[in-house]
C-alpha cells in the first residue's frame, strides 16, 4: 500500500439507499463512460482522498461489482433499511477508525462525508475542501455557495466518536449545528455542491450539463 499525502484524509460515500424517489437505482446509472457511483469514487481518488470507503446497503453486491478494480473499498450498512444516511456514515467511519482498511490509521486527520449521487462535483472542488482540511485539520470544513452549505463535508477525527455515538434517529445536521462555531466554509462559484439527483428529471438535467461541458 502506498503512503497517502499527509495529513491523510479519507472519504466515506453513503451509497446504501433505495433510490425510491428516483424510481431507478441511481448509483448504477450511466455517467459519461462510467456509472454514477464509480465517477464519484474516481473524482475522490483524483483529488487525493485515501482510503475511499463506499457504504452499501440495497443491491450491495451490484454496487461492489460496479466498483471492482476501483480505488474504493466497500462496507455494508446493516441498518440501511432505516433510510437514515447517518447510519451509513457511521458504518464507514467505524471501519476506518478500527483500522479495517489502512495501516496508516494513526495519521488520519479526518474524513470527507460524501453523497453517492453527486458525480458532477468536480475534482477541483474536492481538492479545495481537502486543502482547507489539511490547513485546519481539527475544524469541520464545508463548501458553500451563496451562503448555502453543500458537500462533501470534512469531519475531523476529533469528532468521529461523537458521530458514532449519535442515535439512529439523529442526523448529521444536529452534529454540525452543535459545532457551528467550529466550521470553516470554503466558498465556491458553483451550486453543484448543493445539487443531487433524487428524481429522474434532476439526473437527466445534470447528466446533460455534464455531457455538454
Please describe what this structure looks like.
It is a single chain. With 213 residues, the chain is α/β, with parallel strands linked by helices. The protein has one domain: Spore Coat Polysaccharide Biosynthesis Protein SpsA, Chain A (Alpha-Beta Complex), CATH 3.90.550. The protein has 7 helices and 10 strands. The strands form 3 sheets. It has a 5-stranded mixed β-sheet, with helices on both faces. A 3-stranded mixed β-sheet has the order 8-7-10, covered by helices on one side. It has a two-stranded antiparallel ribbon with strand order 2-3. It is globular. The protein starts with 7 loop residues before the first strand and ends with a helix.
Give me the CATH superfamily.
Answer: Spore Coat Polysaccharide Biosynthesis Protein SpsA, Chain A
Shape: globular
Low-pLDDT windows of residues: none
Q: Helix segment count?
A: 7
Largest sheet: 5 strands, mixed
CATH T-level topology: Spore Coat Polysaccharide Biosynthesis Protein SpsA, Chain A
State the name of the first-level CATH class: Alpha Beta
- Lateral strand order in the biggest sheet: 5-4-1-6-9
- Share in β-strands: 15-25%
Q: How far apart lie the N and C ends?
A: 35 Å
Could you outline the blueprint of secondary structure elements for this entry?
Elements: E1 8-15, E2 30-31, E3 34-35, H1 36-47, E4 52-56, H2 60-66, E5 72-76, H3 85-97, E6 108-115, H4 123-135, E7 140-145, E8 148-149, E9 153-156, H5 160-165, H6 172-178, E10 183-187, H7 200-211
Helix pairs in contact: 1-4
Give descriptors for this structure:
213 residues, alpha/beta, three-stranded mixed β-sheet, 33% helix, Spore Coat Polysaccharide Biosynthesis Protein SpsA, Chain A
Amino acid at each position: 500500500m502506498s503512503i497517502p499525502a499527509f495529513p491523510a484524509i479519507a472519504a466515506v460515500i453513503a451509497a446504501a439507499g433505495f433510490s425510491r424517489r428516483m424510481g431507478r437505482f441511481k448509483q448504477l446509472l450511466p455517467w459519461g463512460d462510467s456509472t454514477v457511483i464509480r465517477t464519484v469514487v474516481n473524482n475522490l481518488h483524483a483529488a487525493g482522498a485515501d482510503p475511499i470507503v463506499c457504504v452499501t446497503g440495497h443491491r450491495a453486491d451490484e454496487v461492489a461489482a460496479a466498483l471492482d478494480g476501483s480505488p474504493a473499498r466497500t462496507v455494508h450498512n446493516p441498518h440501511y433499511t432505516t433510510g437514515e444516511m447517518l447510519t451509513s456514515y457511521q458504518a464507514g467511519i467505524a471501519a476506518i477508525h478500527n483500522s479495517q482498511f489502512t495501516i496508516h490509521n494513526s495519521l488520519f486527520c479526518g474524513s470527507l462525508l460524501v453523497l453517492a449521487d453527486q458525480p458532477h462535483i468536480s475534482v477541483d472542488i474536492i481538492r479545495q475542501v481537502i486543502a482547507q482540511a489539511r490547513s485546519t485539520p481539527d475544524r469541520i470544513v464545508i463548501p458553500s455557495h451563496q451562503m448555502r452549505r453543500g458537500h462533501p463535508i470534512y469531519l475531523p477525527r476529533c469528532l468521529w466518536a461523537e458521530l458514532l455515538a449519535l442515535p439512529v434517529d439523529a442526523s448529521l445536521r444536529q452534529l454540525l449545528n452543535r459545532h457551528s462555531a467550529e466550521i470553516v466554509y470554503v466558498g465556491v462559484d458553483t451550486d453543484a455542491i448543493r445539487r443531487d439527483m433524487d428524481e429522474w428529471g434532476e439526473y437527466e438535467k445534470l447528466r446533460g450539463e455534464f455531457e455538454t461541458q
